[in-house]
């Protein structure tokens, strides 16, 4: 009798859980964590520009995660969006190791996806292949650890926050946040293929809205939309989440301000006369440098990460040929549009540069493109009514992309190739021009560069033939000294959340390549006989996910060999290989098959080389303390909206402590007799700029805090505060300091 009752009870529980999922009741949790890496002297990942090294922070980088589970012990997925250039195979491996030590097999390679926004303004040195580590002088442990820890803790926070909830989905078009930067290559696609679409970029944004079932409160939103993280140029040295990071900051602050008074936009205005404010401010002088605790900068944060904050993420999609520089590309010398086919000016690729909507102000361009994504997300968020119901599922496989047999037209077999880069790669793009002497579309290599190439590694005849019509400039797939230059084994993954299918791709698919992949997967799911998939099934691409393998162009686009095609590593049939293998995964998903062979996951951590030296110790000039003012705020009456206020402090290299979940810079507002943080280095309006021996002939470090008074700033008395840390020698203990400027007024 007892066994029978237990069996009945178990069946009731199972039926209840099935009913809950069918009704859209999931367990949902969201989390976020600071992942800002070293803000001094580390090469930025994206433009491959040796001179672009970090020199401060515009606003901080974050890892943002959501977890959705059918039940406490049921199927679940975790998706993490990084303010980073891309995901890294090595980062993914180490994150999974940490999650296993915390949760056992609850979170694993199958059900965890880690995706990058593709900002080009974050510290590099966290990928494990030589091609992506040259400009960063190899592996940078501090960059790597910042990412791994942030991802781990964002997932842990989301896990701790799991509670019954509902998820709503909404879609809408955003038409002014991206243009096709290789329109001539897009025209190589068949006319009948292009005729299916109104534009040569994808304009659709897909948004998920997460709602706490018990309180009815919204707790987050994740969206996918394709546009490059290249609003900030190759000359920028301030860490920045670029336009998607800006959109996330705007959305999170919008939600917070709409639900309670935010310390980022203090609403209380002082009633005293402006003359009295000026008089009082004039009597508040700089504090001088003072010792402080390790956690002091965390206490000064405007947005304290206690796990209760709204999480808003703007994820990347098939971004390969989509630029945020929407005014188009023009010649620096003449101001005329660049050559259409080669994106050059008089044969010079370096003169052809794209213009953002705020041209020539790249920060304004970042803000505008960020605001456009933010505003569309708000529109979708506030009007989302369609609730997601249905199963959670996932599939993942590792594949050796250098040697895949691809079946075309039923019986014609072609193969992928070892990785290689063509001359169009060296030309760069209109977002970031490359090396002089190359143009996009080049199909030949001159004798000089052939000799340079052959001195590094002459490609095999198999490689030359396999990659045609690409001319092999860098034979990265056949280069293994001091270790592998390019990935061979890649993961591809499908996550299912009810009607939403997320394709985790380890690279940058062009617009048309992404469209073909989405269509192929959807058609496969629908035609597999599983009634859960139909015309309402929605498929999104999560670009730059789990690892990075550069670009994927269509077979037709590959013929022109512009930048995206020249960077399509595995030859002309790369996209066909992806489509073939994703269709296999989709079939397994539709059948519920969990016996898909995984294959090996490469871990090269033991052979990484690090050539970037750690700072050796800092000291201020004689008679000076760290945190002392070198150049105080210059006051000539009130500061108004749009004015820039700045002060410079004697400081130490910010690499001694990243001040994670803290801040290097604060604009404090006087309320009564207390100084309250109003803006910090996670605000778009506040800048932390570092200058030191690495950048100039000066022997001492300087930190400049600059605040552009924003529209929402309240009238009152303010001052600028700096936090930092230092060692006197390389191995001495870390000490912490702070200092504040003289006060000033804002009217």
UniProtKB/TrEMBL annotation:
Subcellular location per the Swiss-Prot or TrEMBL entry: Endoplasmic reticulum; Golgi apparatus; Secreted
Entry keywords, A to Z: Endoplasmic reticulum, Glycoprotein, Golgi apparatus, Hydrolase, Lipid metabolism, Metal-binding, Secreted, Signal, Sphingolipid metabolism, Zinc
Stored PANTHER family: CERAMIDASE, NEUTRAL CERAMIDASE
EC number: 3.5.1.23
Record carries keyword Glycosyltransferase: no
Annotated organism of origin: Sesamum radiatum (Black benniseed)
Entry's Gene Ontology BP terms: cellular response to oxidative stress; ceramide catabolic process; long-chain fatty acid biosynthetic process; sphingosine biosynthetic process
Protein name (database record): Neutral ceramidase
Reactions that this protein is recorded to catalyse: an N-acylsphing-4-enine + H2O = sphing-4-enine + a fatty acid
Main location: endoplasmic reticulum
Domain Neutral/alkaline non-lysosomal ceramidase C-terminal: 582-746
Any Pfam family the entry gives: Ceramidase_alk
A GO molecular-function annotation: N-acylsphingosine amidohydrolase activity
């Amino acid at each position: 009798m007892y066994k029978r009752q237990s069996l009945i009870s178990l069946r009731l529980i199972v039926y209840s859980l099935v009913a809950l999922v069918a009704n859209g009741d999931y367990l949902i949790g969201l989390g976020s964590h600071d992942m800002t890496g070293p803000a001094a002297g580390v090469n930025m990942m994206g433009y491959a520009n040796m001179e672009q090294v970090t020199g401060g922070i515009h606003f901080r980088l974050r890892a943002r995660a959501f977890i959705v589970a059918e039940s406490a012990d049921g199927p679940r997925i975790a998706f993490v969006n990084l303010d980073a250039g891309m995901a890294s195979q090595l980062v993914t491996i180490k994150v999974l190791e940490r999650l296993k030590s915390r949760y056992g097999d609850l979170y694993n390679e199958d059900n965890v996806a880690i995706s990058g926004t593709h900002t080009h303004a974050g510290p590099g040195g966290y990928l494990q292949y030589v091609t992506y580590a040259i400009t960063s002088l190899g592996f940078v442990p501090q960059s790597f650890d910042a990412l791994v820890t942030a991802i781990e803790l964002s997932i842990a926070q989301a896990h701790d926050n799991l509670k019954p909830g509902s998820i709503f989905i909404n879609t809408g078009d955003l038409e002014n946040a991206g243009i096709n930067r290789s329109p001539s290559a897009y025209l190589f696609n068949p006319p009948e293929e292009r005729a299916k679409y109104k534009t040569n970029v994808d304009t659709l944004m897909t948004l998920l809205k997460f709602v706490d079932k018990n309180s009815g409160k919204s707790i987050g939103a994740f969206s996918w939309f394709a546009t490059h993280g290249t609003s900030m140029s190759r000359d920028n040295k301030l860490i920045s989440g670029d336009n998607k990071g800006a959109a996330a900051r705007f959305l999170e602050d919008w939600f917070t301000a709409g639900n309670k008074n935010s310390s980022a936009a203090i609403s209380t205005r002082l009633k005293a006369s402006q003359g009295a404010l000026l008089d009082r401010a004039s009597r508040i002088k700089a504090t001088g440098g003072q010792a402080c605790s390790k956690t002091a900068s965390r206490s000064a944060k405007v947005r304290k990460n206690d796990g209760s904050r709204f999480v808003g993420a703007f994820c990347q999609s098939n971004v390969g040929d989509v630029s945020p520089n929407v005014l188009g590309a023009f010649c620096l010398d003449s101001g005329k549009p660049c050559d259409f086919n080669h994106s050059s000016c008089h044969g010079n690729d370096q003169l052809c540069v794209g213009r953002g909507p705020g041209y020539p102000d790249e920060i304004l361009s970042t803000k505008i493109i960020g605001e456009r994504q933010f505003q569309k997300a708000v529109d979708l968020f506030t009007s989302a009514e369609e609730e997601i119901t249905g199963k959670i599922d996932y599939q993942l496989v590792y594949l050796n992309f250098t040697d895949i047999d691809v079946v075309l037209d039923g019986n014609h077999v072609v193969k992928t190739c070892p990785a290689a880069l063509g001359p169009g790669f060296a030309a760069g793009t209109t977002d970031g021009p490359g090396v002089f002497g190359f143009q996009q579309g080049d199909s030949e290599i001159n004798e000089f560069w052939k000799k340079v190439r052959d001195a590094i590694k002459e490609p095999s005849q198999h490689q030359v033939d396999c990659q045609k019509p690409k001319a092999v400039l860098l034979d990265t797939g056949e280069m293994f000294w001091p270790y592998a230059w390019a990935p061979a084994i890649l993961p591809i993954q499908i996550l299912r959340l009810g009607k939403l299918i997320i394709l985790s791709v380890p690279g940058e698919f062009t617009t048309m390549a992404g469209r073909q992949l989405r269509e192929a997967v959807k058609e496969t799911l629908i035609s597999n006989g599983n009634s859960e998939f139909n015309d309402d099934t929605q498929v999104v691409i999560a670009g730059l996910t789990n690892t990075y393998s550069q670009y994927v162009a269509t077979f037709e686009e590959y013929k022109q060999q512009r930048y995206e095609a020249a960077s399509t590593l595995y030859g002309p049939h790369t996209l066909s290989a992806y489509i073939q293998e994703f269709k296999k995964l989709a079939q397994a998903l539709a059948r519920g098959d969990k016996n898909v062979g995984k294959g090996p996951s490469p871990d090269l951590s033991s052979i990484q080389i690090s050539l970037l030296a750690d700072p050796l110790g800092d000291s201020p000039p004689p008679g000076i303390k760290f945190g002392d003012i070198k150049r105080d705020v210059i006051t000539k009456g009130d500061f108004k909206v749009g004015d820039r206020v700045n002060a410079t402090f004697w400081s130490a290299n910010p690499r001694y402590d990243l001040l994670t979940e803290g801040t290097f810079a604060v604009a404090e507002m006087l309320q009564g007799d207390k100084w309250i943080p109003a803006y910090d280095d996670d605000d778009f309006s506040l800048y932390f700029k570092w200058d030191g021996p690495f950048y100039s002939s000066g022997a001492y470090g300087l930190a400049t805090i600059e605040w552009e008074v924003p529209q929402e700033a309240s009238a009152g008395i303010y001052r600028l505060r700096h936090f930092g840390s230092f060692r006197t020698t390389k191995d001495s203990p870390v000490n912490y300091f702070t200092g504040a400027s003289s006060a000033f007024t804002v009217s």
